[in-house]
């Protein structure tokens, strides 16, 4: 069995030298590749991978495999995911999040909580979702975000996904704070854009935290510096 490293794990380096999976809490402005690169550099090992990309502006849980732990990544990518999402209603951006260019703004003074709840209900369960252009998904071997940065948009096939739970934490216009439990393949940015479309006012993702992947929780994860300090303190 591949060892799992998380906060308060009691292990010795000799027991994990062949590989392990570690829970990492990605910080804002880091790319998922930055996390892999940092761990690869610190541990001086080339074989490092992760089980699911997070956008640079997003924070939260990543599962990172090291050495033989990379073999676990394929299975872990299929686990469902939990998110805390802050959605801004009344505007649409080209990237579906706060980093993009605002394309249109709309008045939302007419919106009421019951109407928002009804739209969310329609976007719960099995859905067909089109991947956003600003994403790491590959089409014909090219990552979509590379085309999007050049102003190129291509046709994307909608994919069947599931939103298991979608709960409102708070609604303080124009910000909608939500908790989401979704299947593999769901883009929360696309969910925000779809919700804005359903309400007829536009919406984009203001903030995002991945709080869980399957049974793994962000509360048990290391920030990068915490992992480095933890590793340095392990007994040989």
Tell the overall outline.
elongated
CATH topology name of the largest domain, in short, is: Pseudouridine synthase
Please state the CA-atom Rg, rounded to the nearest Å. 19 Å
- How many alpha or pi helices? 6
Please outline the major beta sheet: 10 strands, mixed
**Pattern of helices and strands:** EEHEEHEEEHEEEHEEHEEH
Low-confidence stretches: none
What would the average pLDDT be, to the nearest integer?
A: 91
Strand content: 25-35%
What gap, in angstroms, lies between the N and C termini? 20 Å
CATH architecture of the largest domain: 2-Layer Sandwich
Structural class, by secondary structure, is alpha+beta
- Look at the structure and name the CATH superfamily of the largest domain: Pseudouridine synthase
User: What is the β-strand count?
Assistant: 14
Helix proportion range: 10-25%
CATH top level assignment of the largest domain = Alpha Beta
Q: List the domain count as a whole number.
A: 2
Describe the structure using short key phrases.
Pseudouridine synthase, two-stranded antiparallel ribbon, 236 residues, 2 domains, 10-stranded mixed sheet, single chain, alpha+beta
Description:
This protein is of the alpha+beta class. It folds into 2 domains: 4-78 and 214-233, Pseudouridine synthase; 81-213, Pseudouridine synthase (2-Layer Sandwich), CATH 3.30.2350. The chain is built from 6 helices and 14 strands. It has helices at residues 32-43, 73-76, 113-122, 144-148, 188-199, 224-233, and strands at 4-5, 19-26, 48-50, 59-67, 81-89, 91-93, 102-105, 125-129, 138-139, 142-143, 159-172, 175-182, 203-213, 216-217. Strands 1, 2, 3, 4, 5, 8, 11, 12, 13 and 14 form a 10-stranded mixed sheet that branches. Strands 6-7 form a two-stranded antiparallel ribbon. A two-stranded antiparallel sheet has the order 9-10. A hairpin with a 2-residue loop joins β13 and β14. The two termini are 20 Å apart. The mean pLDDT is 91.
């Amino acid at each position: 069995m591949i060892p799992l490293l998380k906060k308060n794990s009691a292990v010795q380096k000799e027991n994990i030298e062949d590989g392990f999976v570690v829970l990492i809490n990605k910080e804002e402005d880091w790319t998922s590749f930055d996390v892999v690169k940092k761990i690869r550099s610190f541990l001086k090992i080339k074989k490092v991978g992760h089980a699911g990309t997070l956008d640079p502006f997003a924070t939260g849980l990543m599962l990172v495999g090291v050495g033989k732990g990379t073999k676990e990544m394929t299975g872990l990518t299929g686990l469902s995911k939990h998110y805390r999402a802050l959605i801004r209603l009344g505007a649409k951006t080209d990237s579906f999040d706060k980093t993009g260019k605002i394309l249109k703004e709309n008045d939302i003074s007419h919106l009421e909580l019951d109407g928002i709840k009804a739209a969310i209900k329609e976007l719960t369960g099995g859905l067909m979702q089109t991947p956003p252009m600003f994403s790491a998904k590959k089409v014909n071997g090219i990552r979509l975000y590379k085309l999007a940065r050049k102003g190129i948009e291509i046709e994307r096939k909608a994919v069947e996904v599931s939103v298991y739970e979608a709960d409102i934490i708070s609604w303080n216009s124009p910000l909608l704070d939500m908790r989401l439990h979704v299947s593999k393949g769901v883009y929360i940015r696309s969910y925000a854009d779809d919700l804005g479309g359903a309400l007829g006012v536009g919406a984009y993702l203001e903030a995002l935290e991945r709080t869980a992947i399957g049974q793994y929780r962000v509360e048990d994860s290391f920030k990068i510096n915490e992992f480095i300090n933890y590793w340095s303190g392990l007994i040989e």
